[in-house]
Specification:
The structure is a homodimer of 357-residue chains. Chain A has 357 residues and is of the alpha/beta class. Chain A is built from 10 helices and 20 strands. Chains A, B: One of its GO terms (biological process) is non-phosphorylated glucose catabolic process.
């Protein structure tokens, strides 16, 4: 079967031929429909993140997949069911660990997990993949074409859950939210904040010039676009307002720090970016004082678990059609897979299509 | 009546004569027993923090008080009841605001509160004080001599509640805790972590040489003393272990940043210090990445509400007698009040005694 793999640091993925996998007991065989491309894929391709499986020289990419159960292999799944796989797996071929046992693989520390398509285990960019049935989340057939958005949405489901939990010890009624970053995850999150969580006022920070499809999407969602070149994050409270919730999806480390400045009293910032080491000067005294005197919190969050995928399916049904139409700027067949990895100002979210329903 | 007041920046408090206050409707008159001294008092005395009441030139100090209801003035309190006052009050003479209405004055932002003995309203270091009955928490008579510890304990009750709430979205079973700072609040918190919350392993960071009464208390509690001059915070994971919970009570801004390094995956740091502005270099990229990939959180927390005072009363009954005996190194009558403000290596926690039961 065909698969899209990368040799770390090679700079671009290649089409490879691999044997079709055979499901082990407890696993189902899934025929892949579509697999999304995101910033993590680009980091893996560039060699900044990720790890090939032990003893291999390439990693099959892809962690945002949707497929159809081809062979249920005795599991409770029905053949023909449309499914989305979760990403983390136990690093041991046999057995598992406490994090997986209690359904919280997203909380496993280094060494206690592998990530399909990212760290130590092949991903889903292949015509077929196998997975333990418990890591396959069924979705309605009518969502099949957008099923590759379930995984990125699940990332924000978790971020919301953890960030909002940090505000659960008091009466918190957030009205305003700021998304740092207008990439596909930032836009998906903005749409969730506007249309599902129904924040009164939302803002999205980017550094692009108009006309731009992401700025159009921001404004069509009813949010305010903030150009970081004109209004740096610490100036947002004066130029607009201090916000109750900040979602950082840039991987720009200064933004993690500046989130404290952008927050209103009692606000929380969810941090999701994964920057490289970078030393810079901060007014640590002022930030520390500000966090304390105004009860502010910062919550780092990574990955997501099955429950977040299930919430994400619900969320996906609530996003407006125009939005997902605008968000997905390209779906490419396997023969033109390279187009799915191209970047540019007119590219927002892309996917590779391996088969149709 | 006698009161202890400070002219901001004068450098030391003075004994002043003031009229005995008359309770307004809804207020009780309280005869003061003891009032504790803490770091905030020293900051107010030094002129780094706090604000005198509008139109006055001095602030009566004291926010850690215990007293006896002298005149219930028609409120539901019984005369003779031993009470501890909460600290924040509405800034408006008439009426209140949403934060006070819902019992969360600790979450009120700047301008929405005054703090007795700290910001904009006289404190409790006087022979009598008045307070709305709703801000007086009854405590058992046998706790009267230690009642001035209820307020500082309540600060940590809130910090625990908020920090632990941030970990409530997953199965978190913390075993190890690190208290940054071996002042009286640090030691009280360490005792709570050891004897009430029953953490398996606790550590307390300071920068003192043995023999030292705070190091003795740390070790008698069963905790490990860490000298920050030998083991800086970022080296604690290698020298001891990465911990599930950090409680920062130093006001040293680098510690707020270094808390991220000291935390185990999925851990949380509660920040309580109130430093001055201070610019320094940090590896913001590494810290940001670390917070995200290991699901770490930082939660700033200030002040406390009535519920935290009520929990603190329970907590106080659970602290061992030897500990509170060792903690309170001096209780001084009003004529020798100056001794209560002296600092030194043999001073841990002091109080001024205005009257006995």
């Amino acid at each position: 079967m065909k698969a899209i793999a990368v040799e770390p640091g090679a700079g671009e993925p290649t089409l490879v031929e691999r044997p079709r996998p055979e499901p082990e007991p407890g696993e189902a065989l899934v025929r892949t429909l579509r697999v999304g491309v995101d910033g993590t894929d680009h980091e893996v391709i560039a060699g900044h993140h990720g790890e090939v499986p032990a003893g291999e020289d390439r990693l099959v990419l892809g962690h945002e997949a949707v497929g159809v159960v081809e062979d249920s292999n005795g599991t409770a799944l029905e053949e023909g069911a449309v499914v989305v796989p979760t990403v983390r797996r136990s690093p041991t071929a046999v057995g598992t660990n406490d994090y997986f046992e209690r359904g919280e693989p997203d909380m496993a520390p280094d060494g206690e997990y592998v990530e399909r398509g990212i760290v130590g285990e092949h991903g889903f960019m292949a015509e077929y993949f196998t997975s333990p049935a418990e890591y396959l989340v069924e979705i309605p057939e009518e969502l099949a074409s957008l099923g590759f958005l379930v995984e990125p949405i699940s990332i924000s489901e978790k971020a919301f859950e953890h960030a909002f939990a940090s505000r659960s010890a008091f009466d918190w009624e957030p009205e305003s939210a700021l998304v740092l970053g207008n990439g596909s995850l930032g836009l998906l999150t903005l749409a969730m904040l506007e249309d599902v969580l129904e924040f009164d006022r939302t803002y999205c920070l980017g550094r692009r010039d108009r006309p731009d499809p992401t700025i159009d999407a921001v404004e069509k969602l009813g949010a305010t676009y903030i150009d970081s070149r004109e209004t740096p994050v610490p100036e947002i409270p004066d130029a607009y307002e201090a916000v109750d919730f900040v979602y950082e999806a840039t991987g720009y480390a200064r933004h993690a720090v500046e989130t404290v400045d952008a927050l209103a009293p009692n606000g929380v910032g969810a941090l999701l970016g994964v920057p490289e080491p970078w030393e810079f000067e901060v007014d640590g005294g002022r930030l520390h004082r500000e966090m304390v005197l105004h009860n502010k919190a910062l919550v780092g969050t990574v990955n997501s678990h099955r429950g977040h995928f299930e919430s994400a399916v619900d969320t996906l049904t609530q996003l407006p059609d125009w939005f997902t139409d605008d968000l997905v700027t390209g779906v490419y067949g396997i023969e033109e897979y390279q187009k799915a990895f191209e970047t540019g100002d007119d590219v927002v979210k892309t996917a590779v299509e391996f088969a149709s329903l």
